[in-house]
Task: structure prediction
Amino acid sequence: MDVRVADNLGVKTEIMEMFGIRLPVVAGGLMWLSNADYVAAAANAGIIGFITAASFPDPDDLRAEIRRCRDLCGDAPFGVNVSMLPKLVPGEKTADVFRLIADEGVRFVETSGRNPEEYMPILKDAGIKVLHKVPAVRYAMKAQSVGVDAVAIVGAECGGHPGMDMIGSFVNAAMAERDLKIPFLIGGGVGQGSQIAAAVLMGASGVVVGTRFLVAEEIWAHDNFKAALVNATERDTALILQSVRNTVRSLKNETTEIVSKMEAENPNGGIEPLLPHVSGKVGRKAYETGDVSRGLLSAGQSLTFVDKIEPLAEIVLRLETEMATAIERLR
Result:
C-alpha cells in the first residue's frame, strides 16, 4: 500500500536511523515462523524483521534463507535473530551461526537468551549492529556495558519469555528512559498504534511487536491457528514453566493446563518430565495442522488487538494510522 500516514509527523528516532526504517517498529523473531517471506513483508512495509536462525538448524538451510530474504527485500533492511540458551552447553554452534551471518553480509542481528558478550568481537568486526532482547531493564544495563547498539525490553505482557521479574511495559519504559544511555525498544502487549506513540514519548526509540503480527498472511502457519488467535482475548494466555525459571506466556490450551498441574504437584521436578509437552516440535505441529490444543504457542496479551487475518502491510498501516491519530491528539 502506497499510503504513508506518518511520514509528515516528524517522528524520527535513533532506531529508525540505525536500521533505515520508516516507522519505529521492529517485528521480533518468531520461532519457526520468521522466514524470508515474513521478514521481507516487514521490510517492504517500512519496518524491520528478523529471520529466526533456530528455525533453520542446518547451516546450508540458514544460508539459503538469508539469500532468499535478500532477494525479496532488495535494498530494504532485514536481520537475523539468534536466540541463545541461558547457559552455554557442550556442542553449541552459536559462534558458527554468527560467523555464517557475518559471512553473508547481514547488517543487523537480534540476540536473546543470554549475555552476547563473548560473540561481540565477531559481530563488531563484521560491522553488524546488535539489538539485544531482554526481559528487564537490569539485563539491559548489562547488555549496554558489553557494547550492544540497542536493547529491546519485553515486559510481563509479552508472549514467549517475559522473564521472572514480571515487570510491565509501562514501568519498563520509564525505568529505561531513566537508566539507559543507548537506544531502547519496548515490547510486551504492543498491538495498537497509540502505544507506539506513547513509547516514543516515554523515551523509547520504538517498539517490538510479535503477537499482533502472528495473523499476517505472510506467516506460513495454518489459518486455523490464526483464527484461534482472532477469537482469543487478552485473558486467553497462561504463564507456565516458572518452576524451572523459564517462564513462558502461551495461548491457553490442554498443554498449559497439564503443565500447570504438573508444576503445582511437583514444583521441584525439573524440566525433564515437562519436555514431552513443551518441546518446540510439538508447537511446530500446531502451526502446521492448525490444532491449537497442544503445544506451547507463544502469545501475549495484545491478543485483544488481533481481529482478522490480513497482509502484514495492512496491519502496519493500521498501526501507523493509530499512531498518527495519537500524535495529533497530543498536539
